[in-house]
């Protein structure tokens, strides 16, 4: 991996600090490096402003002259009443180089940011970075598909169950896996369960980790009826296209809700927490309409596997089956 690629990966890791508080803007990070050392850094602040580049440049001051700016997303080229275009700030900064890990699909920028920076005499480079694209996955999904990125979480026994035959389900996984789930909730804009799960379990769906209690996502329920106080109703999985300001949707269950999103082709990522127990009970996913075993293959790519206490976590990304 080149030095530029390593710096972009480090910048992408920094971008996690912006998610999800930067909404409705994407969580972007910027790092300014001179002579192999970080002189300033920044990430998108709550509410979407200031942008990462503006923060990093203000922190660097004169140290930005002759330095390299690494940024996860192409600096914006459009002016806004909320702040200046980052491409203009960068152009006037005295930087020697700018390296971008992901181009901005927003038509108001879409290449114009790097073009403006290059016209100012600054070396402007696009170096595709999987880490940067992953850090911006919700924003890129929203721009490309007009909907949030959907993560489906499943906590299962070895035989794929989410509950005993009696319905008892707390707790299948151990404290480490549950803590990880809460960390994932803190990264989401909205969290959703089915109406049956809401009625049976009355889940809190909050974040119970020290220091992150205020990061609880907005609570949604999949129902054609009215939502209870403190919740919002989603009439169907396809209605996620109308979830304004939501870039990351975390779906927690139950079996029918999981099946509904899978059948609609609206699951981008699977988080499968698996406990070393056998339950012989209620399956984690209902029938979602697969016509053949052959149709089940090739749909998911293993992205990560780790141990959480006595449990395991497997993360799968959906494969693009369109060929595009």
UniProtKB/TrEMBL annotation:
Binds 1 zinc ion. InterPro entries: CMP_dCMP_dom, Cytidine_deaminase-like, DHFR-like_dom_sf, Eubact_RibD, RibDG_C, Riboflavin_Biosynth_HTPR. PROSITE patterns: CYT_DCMP_DEAMINASES_2 (PS51747). Its EC number is 3.5.4.26, 1.1.1.193. One of its GO terms (molecular function) is 5-amino-6-(5-phosphoribosylamino)uracil reductase activity. Keywords: Hydrolase, Metal-binding, Multifunctional enzyme, NADP, Oxidoreductase, Riboflavin biosynthesis, Zinc. Residues 2-115 form the CMP/dCMP-type deaminase domain. Pfam families: dCMP_cyt_deam_1, RibD_C. Pathway: Cofactor biosynthesis; riboflavin biosynthesis; 5-amino-6-(D-ribitylamino)uracil from GTP: step 2/4; Cofactor biosynthesis; riboflavin biosynthesis; 5-amino-6-(D-ribitylamino)uracil from GTP: step 3/4. It catalyses: 2,5-diamino-6-hydroxy-4-(5-phosphoribosylamino)-pyrimidine + H2O + H(+) = 5-amino-6-(5-phospho-D-ribosylamino)uracil + NH4(+); 5-amino-6-(5-phospho-D-ribitylamino)uracil + NADP(+) = 5-amino-6-(5-phospho-D-ribosylamino)uracil + NADPH + H(+). Its cofactor is Zn(2+). Converts 2,5-diamino-6-(ribosylamino)-4(3h)-pyrimidinone 5'-phosphate into 5-amino-6-(ribosylamino)-2,4(1h,3h)-pyrimidinedione 5'-phosphate. In the C-terminal section; belongs to the HTP reductase family. This is Riboflavin biosynthesis protein RibD.
